[in-house]
Amino acid sequence: MKPLAYVPVRLGLAALLFAGCAAQRSLSKAEPTAFLRSSGAVNAGQMERLPFERAWKSPGLNLADYSKVLLRPVTTRYLRSGNWQESTSTYIASERDFRQHAADLARVWDANLLKAFADPANRFTLVSQPQPGTLIIEIALTEVVFGHPAASLASYAVPGGSVAMAMVSPSVACEMRIIDASTRKIVAAASDRRSTKIKLVDVNKLSFTKSNEEICAEWSVQAMQALNKEKFPVVKRNWVSLY
């Protein structure tokens, strides 16, 4: 991949931004796994205030009845790994490598969730054991495609003498369940699949998992905002990002 000595960076950025948005909007909805089929969200559509592909809540759910949140570790048990070859790169040469990186991503997501719910905008108290008035949040990582350099796309010279390259970025799918700790019933659920698809990456900051982590970090914030309806009547979604 030969760096260009001098290129119209703004034009290149605009083209990649457009491509990323178009690709993300064209993604098909992920088929629900057994994790989501246990809830009422299988046939649900989009909810007006939420940015997820599928969202459902029990008709009797009143968030004012709850004051605590318990976060379960993100699980990879329901991960669709049959297409792990899509992630093949210098870092992933086998399904075992793929599953290890997916497990690492789940742990990063756990940290992102803790950070999101530590935000002062969150009114819920984090607890480690179920108590009255507690909502339990369970999340399954159901699909991961790790990014890798796009060999067919050009690199771009950027100000400061650095070089940016085009990446075929990942897609990530997840399913979420919210459970009443007292009744053990699922009171809300959601699922989503996202990708920035094509993005510009500074080669000096190249990390093949960074895009995946960005998506999960955004989901973490949105999960917190979804439960804090008074402060976040509409939870917004970002279509594309650069790093």
Query: How do the helices and strands follow one another from N- to C-terminus?
Result: HHEEHEEEEEEEEH
Oligomer: single chain
* DSSP, total strands: 10
Tally of helical runs? 4
Q: What sort of overall outline do the alpha carbons produce when their principal axes are compared?
A: globular
Structural class from helices and strands? alpha+beta
Q: Under the CATH scheme, which architecture of one domain would be assigned?
A: 2-Layer Sandwich
What is the residue-mean pLDDT, rounded to a whole number?
78
Low-confidence parts lasting 5 or more residues at pLDDT below 50? 1-26, 151-159, 161-166, 200-206
Describe the largest sheet: 6 strands, mixed
Radius of gyration computed on alpha carbons: 19 Å
The amount of beta strand, in percent, is 15-25%
What is the CATH top level name of one domain?
Answer: Alpha Beta
What would you say this structure looks like, in words?
- The chain is of the alpha+beta class and 243 residues long.
- The chain has a domain at 29-147 and 170-195 and 204-227: Double Stranded RNA Binding Domain (2-Layer Sandwich), CATH 3.30.160.
- 26% of the residues lie in helices and 25% in strands.
- The chain contains 4 helices and 10 strands.
- It has helices at residues 9-26, 34-37, 95-117, 210-227, and strands at residues 54-57, 68-71, 125-126, 134-145, 148-149, 155-158, 162-168, 171-180, 186-195, 198-202.
- α3 packs parallel to α4 (210-227).
- The longest helix is centred in the middle third of the chain and has 23 residues, at 95-117.
- It starts with 8 loop residues before the first helix and ends in a 16-residue tail after the last helix.
